Amino acid sequence: MMTPGKFIVIEGLEGAGKSSAVSAIKTVLNHRDIPFISTREPGGTPIAEALRDIVKQGMANEHVCDSTELLLMYAARAQLVETLIRPALANGTWVIGDRHDLSSLAYQGGGRELGMAKLKAIKQIAIGDFEPDLTLYLDIEPSLGLSRARQRGELDRIEQQDLNFFERTREVYLQQVAEKESIMLIDASQNMAQVAASITAILIQYVDNI
Fold this sequence. Notes:
- This protein is of the alpha/beta class.
- The chain has a single domain, classed as Rossmann fold, CATH 3.40.50.
- It is built from eight helices and five strands; from the N terminus they run E-H-E-H-H-E-H-H-E-H-H-E-H.
- The two termini are about 15 Å apart.
């Protein structure tokens, strides 16, 4: 019987360095000859990418309501999980995810203040009890993260929210870290080499203990 793959997710605020973190994970898995694919949320499939464009950029002359944003996120997530992530894991392929459900808890539940009860009800409809095997949360002060994000270029619709939005988002992230052993916190205010070293150490230990 084939051993299922593992689902490893990177989470964090804007400017936390998620792309660099994904690269560090890929390096470890390549060294261990572990087959993997990588994806992102929202996105990862043609349908989910189309929904991503609306979430990130909005629509001309029409405001994207907070509840609409939430439902679009879960529609994209359901499509990704069912058509890409679950089949890959069943075939023994590991999946590296740039964001997953924790992002919705933090951004829509916390940042948008839509509440955890609503989020959990919609999650059950969209993906049920599906969870990552390991989540690496890159923690950073919102003001520093946004400063880094601005240096990358133009901010998208969500990145343009005020500082209080990201403070609420980070608060939910930290609450979830405290509650779930499968979420590991990494100090993303360090330089990229230090962050990569922390991720590498955590992932090597995780792989060795499987």
